[in-house]
Design brief:
By secondary structure, this protein is α+β, with helices and mostly antiparallel strands.
Amino acid sequence: ERAFCVCLLVLFLTLPYVNLLDRDTFSKSDPICVLYVQGVGNKEWREFGRTEVIDNTLNPDFVRKFILDYFFEERENLRFDLYDVDSKSPNLSKHDFLGQVFCTLGEIVGSQGSRLEKPIVGIPGKKCGTIILTAEELNCCRVIMKITENFFSYSFTICHKTEVVKNTLNPVWQAFKISVRALCNGDYDRTIKVEVYDWDRDGSHDFIGEFTTSYRELSRGQSQFNVYEVVNPKKKGKKEKYTNSGTVTLLSFLVETENTINFTVAIDFTASNGNPAQPTSLHYMNPYQLNAYGMALKAVGEIVQDYDSDKMFPALGFGAKLPPDGRISHEFALNGNPQNPYCDGIEGVMEAYYRSLKSVQLYGPTNFAPVINHVARYAASVKDGSQYFVLLIVTDGVISDMAQTKESIVNVSSGHSVLVTMIELDGDDVRVSSRGKYAERDIVQFVPFRDYIDRSGNHILSMARLAKDVLAEIPEQFLSYMRARGIKPSPAPPPYTPPTHVLQTQI
């Protein structure tokens, strides 16, 4: 079954629409791609392998494949360096550097269709193009890595071609779906160019005209803002009275989002954590390094965010007195907005956490049930299994509302995953029960942070170990939920094939 299990991955890496620098004067580049992986503890980059060199071409198709171990619960950093090979020397410093791409293996696997587009960077002041990385399973969690590159001399890359509507001057083209990443790589203001042709059977299609727009403009939907004049630049330059070759009107625009995991964070702001101004506090606001809560949030969040498509995380606090009236809350938004508690990525969660520390008063008691029920309310609205909810509770001590917490866990065990740092709630040996009713599944994972502190003071290693065990049970929790409801994995997307022409976006 396809899910977040421990896998061997063979990645199909494709790099279409790469406009790399051509460093050769009298011929085209001879590209090679070098893959590096980063060590967990020392953060050193180690060369994993190289593709073969493709001579004198702007459209290389690399044959070399790479096999990597993939673990959902670990952050696996990758680096792809591109070079123009000028000699037979294996020393990369002897060749022209064309740029590089950084990503995690989780980013590739967690992207829609396991297809990730990233900009190529590394040469100041130069646009090095983009790289598209795709992962595909092979034989029960085995996937192959393949690299191909295409170089184009123009500044727009083609991303969709409509069907031909014959024998009419008023065509209505069918609606089509395209990912935001493929259309504009998430840049809502990137220029999108649309070209219109008169189709001929012999392939000599006549250019009618073009217009430009953007995702932001298209998102307005059908309106006066989305009626475009189709202009032929050559005709406009030759004919003074020429205005346009017609108009194109947008009939509909719909954005669909697909989330696999919805990740929510809840943080313990009770007084038992100690005064944040004192070094002994777990909430100590150290200007030079992360405190215990910060390390836990960063370690787990940086991995989970690769599997959340919008990377917007609700972040809650509990057990504090809130300004201005000092009311005690066990379910408050860290960003101060209860109607919209979402933070932008794990960095946004971290910022909201440290801002809250400066404004709230640590108090008590330690009640978990309100934040569990908070996530349950959101999850209850999703009936088709398309979204899976994970709640990470970071706490320091004993639960005050044990009975209510157990009841909440039993009630939501039919649909959601909850991570709680209390050993009594860990259902590995005995499932949690309340009023004689047992939890349908083991949906609780207990991980004591103190057990993961590296004795040598290597916080990076501590964070990696912590994240690995915190996330270890999510794959089986996810699968047990899907199995219980007979929900099958979505069919694999068709193999990626580069489009030919018509709809283009600017690089």
